[in-house]
Amino acid sequence: MTIMAAGLMSCSSPQQGDTKVKTISATEYKAHHEKIDNKEVMLVDVRTPAEFEAGHLEKTQHTDFLSGEFEKEMQHWDKNKTYYLYCASGNRSGKAAKMMEEAGFENVYNVGGYLDLKSAGLPVKE
User: pLDDT tens digits for 20-38?
Assistant: First the structure.
């Protein structure tokens, strides 16, 4: 009974390292886009290779979240840089941002979906 109670208590208490992913809109991101040339900032597309080839933002590094490639590559990234992540809808980029924050990255932003970013007038390659 004590073990079960301890198990229930651990499920109900906040998890250590439980972070809220920072999200900004496509319009808010557009104001930051000029900084991408800066070596301290990186824009990351976490969609599949097929999605990326169909169209992506300029100055983007591609690393596929679903294949596990993202998790491997981020281990080699500078934790002091600022990262802006996007995917098709904001779901995968949100998960990727959370993964980065849990790994100790502090300046990570989910900027949502590609079509929203494209509609906001950001330069794309198609």
Answer: 789 999 999 988 777 676 7
Q: What distance in Å separates the CA atoms of residue 34 and residue 97, rounded to the nearest whole number?
A: 21
Beta strand 60-62 pairing with 41-45: parallel
Beta carbons within 8 Å of 95's beta carbon, 6+ residues apart = 65
Distance CA 112, CA 10 (A): 32
Q: Are 31 and 41 in contact (CB under 8 A)?
A: no
pTM for this model (two decimals): 0.82
Strand partners, 84: 43, 109
Q: For the chain, what are the domain ranges?
A: 20-125
102: Cβ contacts below 8 Å, ≥ 6 apart: 17, 19
CATH class of 20-125: alpha beta
Closest CA to 124 of 33, 39, 40, 25: 33
Q: pLDDT, tens digit, for every residue of 44-74?
A: 999 999 999 999 999 899 999 999 999 999 9
Quote the tokens at residue 7: 């198990």
**Calpha distance 84→79 (Å, rounded):** 13
